[in-house]
Every structure is written in structure tokens, then in C-alpha cells.
Amino acid sequence: MIVTPNLMAQFSNGASQIIQNGRTGQIAIAEAMNELWSEVLGGGLYAVIATLGVFFAVGSLVLFMTQWAKALIEYDEPIMWSEIIWPLLVAVLLANDGAMLANGTQGLRSVINNTSNSLLQNTSARISLQESYQMVTENIGAKAVIDSLVSQCDSIVDVQQQVDCLTNAEQQAQEFSRTLQPSSQALLAQIGSLLNPLNVTERVGFALQTAVTGWLMSIGMAFQWVAEVSMLLTGLLGPLAVGATLLPVGAKAIYAWLISFFSIGLVKICYNIIVGLVATLIVNAESYNPLVFAFVAGLIAPILALVLAAGGGLAIFNSLNSFSAFVLGGLK
């Protein structure tokens, strides 16, 4: 029986390859959405929503000026002259069909995606180095050699330079590992067991595990698509939030919109951090089960990322309220 490349890949793919595939998939999703973002935020749909936002702003401005005039009559001066900043800010953001707001929204998205990509890139490089470390752990001096390679990279602050250092260290570790005897007997034994015609149960179980793993990983990929689309819809509603900012009701609507946008970004970042940590644990474990990683990436990580992002978004919202109250209070 011929050993197919797909079968070999099921056993030879390490956690670093999975992380790299996840990073590649995320970049592919972001690049596929780039054109859609440009079309939506630079097209007629956004202009229509921006026009609606202007109507919201005009209505909110009437209520705002009513409250402002009431304060002027009752207290002989406005409660806070700094409140005049808000109508000016709304006018600037919604001018020219919300062009400045659209550019700012895409800029925020770029910052979030670049941060998420940097996390995955750094994790992929570090896990690759750890896999090379595992290949040489049977050698007495191997640990000291790899630790010295890692310590050189840990002191680097710049993310890109650290990734380059880890990549170079990985190559050195792989070159060092070639001088030792590879321990691949377990892998060959597992493949040979599957290729045995008598082990029908094992082959059926392997096929079922492969199918479930692919299904769970597809859920994880779909979760990233949903997060990207949710961010697009949130960005599209930006003019409405800006237009309703002048409403004299509690917190500013623009705060809620910003927190929603950043919360979705936190979902993406938290998801990548969780997957990266789990992949690191898998590298350090004695055995690797792709179904475990797929279960985490497809079910556990999305749920946990949503919970963490919700908590982080609430904390940011409270911080923004306190900060704005402090700044505006100082401008009285």
C-alpha cells in the first residue's frame, strides 16, 4: 500500500505548522475583506448612512442646544463650555459623506489586524524553535545550546527583529539536530499500524478523527470570517453613532461604537492568543492529538475569546468614561 502525502501530513504537521496555517488563513481572510471594506466604506452605501447620520446629528444638535440654552438661562453661563467640542467633532467626522470617519475606521482596523498578525507571527517562530528543541532533548548539551539561542532573542524589543532572531535560531537548532540520531520510531510504528490491512478499526477511527478535526477547524475559520464581517458592519454604522453623539442621554454614542469596534478586535486577538498558547502546550506535551487542538480552536477558543473580549470592552468603556469626565472637567 502506498503512503499518501495527506496521510503523512496528518502525522508530521507540528503545532508550528498549524499556527502558521492559522496565520496564513487569517491574512487571507483580511486580504479578501480589504476590497470589500474599500467598496463599502468608499461607496454609495456608506454615503447614504453618512447622510442619515447627518440627520441624526441635526436632531441631536437641536436637543443639545436646548439643554445648553437652558443652562445658560438658569446659571447665566453654560455648565461646560467644553461641550462645544462635540458639535465641532461631529461636523468634522460627518463632512464630505463621512470621509474622515471612513479613513479613521479603516485605520483602526489596520492597527487591530497588524497586532493580531504580529502575535501569530511571533508565536509561530517561537513554537518552531521549541519543536527543534524537542528534537535534540536526548542529547546532554542540547538544552543549554537551545536556551542560549532563545536568550539572545528574548532581549530584543522590536517584534520583527525578534521574529527574525527566532527564525535564525530555529535554523541553527535544526542544523544542530542533524548531528544527532532522529527519534522517529514512534511515528513509523503508528503509520505502520494504520497501513496494516487487519487494523480496520484503527483506520475507521483515523478517518473519523480526520473528518471531525476538519469540521472543527472549519468552525474556527468560520469564526474568524464572522468576526471580520462583524467588524465591517460595526464600521458601517459609525456615522449613525457619531450623529447620535449629541443626544443628552448618558454616555456618548461614539463611545459605545468605539468599544464595539475594539471589542471585536479583542475577540480576534484573544482567539489568536488562546490558540497560540494551546499550540505551545501541545509542543511541550509528550504526544500530539490533532483532535484536541481542533476542539480548542473550533469551540473552546471562540467562546473564551468572546467572554474575554466582553470583559475587556466593559473595562475600556468605563475607563473612557472616567477619562473623558476628567478631561472635560478640567476644561471648565
List keywords for this structure.
single chain; 332 residues; mainly alpha; 11 helices; elongated; disordered N terminus
Strand-helix topology:
Layout: H1 5-12, H2 15-41, H3 44-75, H4 85-135, H5 142-154, H6 159-177, H7 185-195, H8 200-236, H9 238-243, H10 253-284, H11 290-330
Helix pairs in contact: 2-4, 2-8, 2-10, 3-4, 4-6, 4-10, 5-6, 8-10, 8-11, 10-11
Overall description:
With about 325 residues, this protein is mainly α. The chain has one domain. The radius of gyration is 27 Å and the shape is elongated. The N and C termini lie far apart (about 80 Å).
The average pLDDT score comes to: 71
Supply the number of structural domains.
1
Overall geometry comes to elongated
User: How would a textbook summarize the main sheet?
Assistant: none
Q: From the alpha carbons, calculate the radius of gyration and give it in angstroms.
A: 27 Å
Based on helices, strands and strand pairing, what is the structural class? mainly alpha
Helix content: over 70%
Q: What is the CA-CA span between the terminal residues?
A: 82 Å
Percent of sequence in beta strands: under 5%
The H-and-E topology, N to C, reads as HHHHHHHHHHH
Low-confidence stretches: 1-14, 132-141, 181-198
Strand tally is 0
How many helical elements? 11
In short:
This protein is mostly helical and 332 residues long. It is 83% helix and 0% strand.
